[in-house]
Amino acid sequence: MEYMQTSLFGSETKPSSKKTPTRKRGVVKKRTTVPKLMATEPMVADSPKDPIGINDELEKILGVGEYLDYINHILKVTEDVKVQGEISRLSPHPTGVYMTLKDKDGEGVLDCYINPYTFQGLGIQLEEGMEVKLTGTPGIFKRRSQLSFKVENVELTGEGSLKKAYELLKAKLEQEGLFDRKRELPEFIHSIGVITSKTGAVIDDFRHNLEKRGFKLYFKDCRVEGAQSVSQISAAIKNFNINYPDLDCLVVMRGGGSLEDMQAFNNEGIVKEVFASRIPVIAAIGHDRDVPLACLAADKFTSTPTAAAVLINSSWARLQTELPELQNSLTQQFENALHSQRNRLANITHKLTGSFNAIFQRFRYLSEKILRGAGQVETGVIEIKQRAISTLNHSLVALERQLQKYGEQVVSAGKLLATANPERNLKLGYSLAYNSAGKIIRSASSVAKGSHIKVQLHKGSMDAEIINIEQ
Fold first, then answer.
1. Residue 151 burial (C-beta neighbours within 10 Å; 0-12, 13-18, 19+)
2. Which of 25, 115, 132, 438 is deepest in the core (most CB within 10 A)?
3. High-pLDDT (> 90) share of the chain, %
């Protein structure tokens, strides 16, 4: 089984030797204190700490717009944070989606904005009352001096919100017919595209349960959970369809998890990529109660990678059942043809032998008759000799013709015999196997491991011992 890993994003890159400082997501690092407007130290204009050009003057008077720009600059350089709360107001608009996020058990309220492109890529249905986790950056709208949170990603939290979003999207996609089309997997699957994470036991379980049939596996390493999982899985499906369109099937896999863990596979974008795939898709995604929507859109789905491997193995079932039957049928037909040709040759030989015996008997009869006539009256000797010679000539001519006829039959029978001769097939590279009783072995089930057999070749024969038997 060949196993190949391909890159989603072109050539592989080696990790940098420089260490990148790590941080916890959703936690803002403590930053340098914002410089006061009344400068006590000289500052370089247009520096990151001084976007509005405060220099070494003792005092800088700012306009309102300048001051708001100054604050927005400070807010902009903060790292992305995650804010969790409940949607209390949701207003879709052509320019974007406006909503208000509030604390579930507190008084905090935050106005949020999602641009149309970001919202379209979320792949989830939002409603008021849902509990969400937003990633983005804050900013102040200058004309209203209003703080707003620009959303870059939305994650559902809480069983109720996840379940509600699941049912809403399921109804929408079901109405669009994305769960209706089911294609049959090809027979004798050979090349397989695999989409899952390289970490964990999922990929190993799948590989170890595939039978030894020379499968070719093309692997795409993707995150199967978290904010990046949707884009990576979508890119993997597209990549396989563009660069490996002749694959027999795609297998999208991940282990079991909660409804929150399965958000990527309940995403509208992923479901539509599965449906749009020209390569048949098997979804092997673990689940508890609710079947992931990506599974419903796939051509086949199982709940474990082991079951997906068994499903692929079953595409070879017809070969396993019919090949031994065809082999036995071919052997039987060959033996029947050989037996028939042997009987035909025996019949021709018998007829030919009988004809020769009749000719020689007649010849002896005529010879004896001639000899008996030699003792007759001397006057009839000449006449008898002439008649005998004439009769003998006719007999010899008839004998020559008969011999020529039977000779042709012998040549024809010889050609037929040569065609059916097992030695001819042995010359072509075939061999005959005999058991210890001298009978031809027709099936692997008729011999036992460790038994001795004789193998007849074109030139010579050899004895062999049965080491392994494959039914």
1. buried
2. 132
3. 20
